[in-house]
């Protein structure tokens, strides 16, 4: 007898199949199974689709689907694109895009990542078995479809993006990658400045348990991570490094794959800064696109076949690098940014050019706050606040004059006479003194209007351990990269408190924190601006 949760997954997959097949106009009812009981075929518009089992590494079976061009008759080969699914998503995720790609002359193979839904194995979180699976799927595609071994690409959203980047460092057959809303450095993404991203980790852990089979290693890592088990910190860091494309940068560069990275300014799972840093270190053909939104929301509409800038450029990227199409994408400036506050795209030759001009906001005078109480300033709610910002221009807001100074340190600029176009990562430098050896602070940058209402521009957490109580120490903190226009007549405000629902804080009860600006080491906020 099947386990109830397995039966639930099977039922859910069946229902989702029916819905998505209708949405993407895959045609009539699925035909009689071919090539054995695990494969079914149908016709999607002009392209053919087949749902099939694909052998993974270690003897497991991956559930997949294959789209082939309508004119495929065995007489020619086509470029192939492999699409690993996102975390907790089944093989149906990319149906609309796979059909469009097949209609334009690609073989497209998508598969449910191991450990999720009906694919075999356990969740390895982009570990070595996942990388080996990607190569096994490529092997299968070359043996069972009219795929061209000289023109292989990989793409994916979130988890699929991470697996695609990692695979490009281990399988030199991969010539082009499009990685959307993924990670390059898993440690920086969810443990930046030694602060656990609580909501992101709980979300991933919960979805993994609901839709898949987390392995013992993952379960242990999540338990130690969310439980703040610092005794296991080195093990957690090693686990994260093993799953970070940045660790294998030399191999990725040696492979020479053309890599396009796309992310959202407000990604609460994998913030954009680690992507920008990784982009700068790539030596092959590359492109970086950043837009308003949260995790996977910038490219989300494309999964339903709707017009979408991310997917449009993904198609152009593959057309150029796998088909040799002269569509001009190689002549465009490779860094493309879209502001959260409106307007079209801005182009830059590299990430350094984004932050080339900076203005300094002095942080004069001392501030002292008590820890452990949420002042009201916060980064919002994962997968909600930044979607409101994306579609309604409503970022998290707070009344800056009403913030309790007992729990929040506040500095404000003068009113600006002209628009301040913030581009990139603001950098905070200050001197901190705590009466405890551990603690957490969260810095927020607000756009403050005439009535004192602050709209969140950026933020970042910082955690310290092992400090001598009462002894000052320097803090350097990069706020998350953004693109935001502060209107003329507004101010910028820096707010620092100690509690944010997005993160796990490490402040003992009753802790007090002081901020100072010594003459020989003044505190300041460096703000990147576009003239």
Tags for this model:
531 residues, 24 strands, 8-stranded antiparallel β-sheet, disordered N terminus, 11-stranded mixed β-sheet, alpha+beta, 13 helices
Give unreliable regions as ranges.
Answer: 1-37
Cα(first) to Cα(last) distance is: 67 Å
Q: Give the biggest beta sheet.
A: 11 strands, mixed
Would you report the number of β strands?
A: 24
Tell me roughly what share of residues is in helical segments: 25-40%
Number of helices: 13
Strand content: 25-35%
The chain-level mean pLDDT equals 93
Structural class designation: alpha+beta
Please, what is the oligomeric state? single chain
Spatial strand sequence of the major β-sheet: 1-2-3-5-4-6-7-8-9-10-11
- What is Rg? 24 Å
Question: Can you offer a commentary on this structure?
Answer:
With 531 residues, the protein is α+β, with helices and mostly antiparallel strands. It has 13 helices and 24 strands. The strands form three sheets. An eleven-stranded mixed beta sheet has the order 1-2-3-5-4-6-7-8-9-10-11, with helices on both faces. Strands 12, 13, 16, 17, 20, 21, 23 and 24 form an eight-stranded antiparallel beta sheet that branches. The protein is globular, with a radius of gyration of 24 Å. Mean pLDDT is 93; it is low at 1-37.
């Amino acid at each position: 007898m099947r386990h109830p949760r397995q039966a639930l997954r099977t039922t859910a997959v069946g229902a989702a199949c029916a819905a998505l097949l209708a949405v993407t106009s895959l045609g009539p009812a699925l035909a009689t199974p071919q090539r054995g009981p695990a494969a079914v075929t149908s016709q999607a518009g002009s392209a053919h689709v087949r749902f099939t089992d694909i052998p993974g590494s270690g003897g497991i079976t991956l559930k997949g689907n294959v789209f082939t061009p309508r004119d495929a008759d065995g007489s020619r080969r086509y470029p192939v694109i492999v699409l690993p699914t996102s975390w907790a998503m089944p093989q149906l995720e990319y149906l609309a895009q796979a059909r469009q790609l097949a209609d334009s002359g690609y073989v497209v193979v998508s598969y449910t990542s191991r450990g999720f839904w009906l694919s075999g194995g356990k969740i390895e979180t982009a570990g070595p078995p996942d990388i080996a699976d990607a190569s096994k799927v490529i092997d299968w595609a070359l043996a069972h479809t009219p795929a061209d071994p000289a023109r292989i690409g990989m793409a994916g959203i979130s988890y699929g993006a991470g697996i695609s980047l990692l695979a490009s460092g281990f399988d030199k057959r991969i010539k082009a990658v499009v990685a959307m809303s993924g990670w390059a450095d898993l440690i920086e993404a969810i443990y930046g400045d030694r602060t656990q991203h609580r909501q992101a980790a709980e979300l991933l852990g919960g979805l993994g348990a609901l839709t898949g089979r987390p392995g013992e290693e993952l379960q242990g890592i999540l338990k130690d991570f969310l439980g703040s088990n610092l005794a296991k910190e080195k093990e957690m860091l090693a686990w994260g490094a093993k799953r970070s494309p940045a660790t294998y940068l030399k191999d990725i560069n040696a492979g020479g794959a053309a890599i396009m990275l796309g992310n959202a300014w407000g990604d609460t799972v994998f913030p954009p800064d680690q992507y920008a840093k990784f982009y700068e270190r790539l030596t092959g053909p590359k492109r970086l696109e950043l837009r308003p939104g949260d995790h996977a929301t910038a490219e989300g509409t494309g999964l339903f076949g709707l017009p979408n800038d991310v997917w449009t450029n993904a198609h152009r990227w593959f057309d150029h690098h796998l088909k040799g199409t002269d569509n001009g994408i190689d002549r465009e400036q490779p860094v493309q940014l879209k502001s959260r506050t409106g307007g079209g795209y801005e182009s830059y030759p590299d990430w350094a050019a984004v932050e080339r001009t900076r203005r300094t906001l002095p942080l004069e005078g001392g501030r002292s706050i008590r820890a452990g109480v949420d002042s009201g300033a916060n980064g919002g709610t994962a997968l909600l606040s930044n979607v409101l910002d994306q579609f309604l221009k409503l970022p998290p807001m707070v009344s800056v004059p009403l913030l309790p100074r007992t729990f929040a340190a506040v500095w404000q600029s003068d009113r600006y006479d002209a628009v301040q176009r913030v581009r990139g990562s603001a950098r905070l430098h200050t001197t901190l003194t705590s009466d405890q050896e551990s603690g957490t602070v969260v810095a927020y940058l607000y756009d403050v209007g005439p009535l004192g209402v602050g709209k969140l521009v950026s933020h970042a957490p910082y955690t310290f351990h092992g400090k001598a109580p009462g002894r000052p120490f320097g803090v350097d903190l990069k706020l998350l990269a953004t693109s935001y226009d502060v209107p003329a007549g507004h101010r910028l405000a820096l707010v620092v408190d100690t509690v944010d629902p997005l993160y796990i804080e490490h402040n003992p009860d009753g802790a007090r924190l002081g901020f100072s600006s010594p003459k020989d080491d003044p505190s300041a906020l460096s703000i990147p601006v576009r003239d």
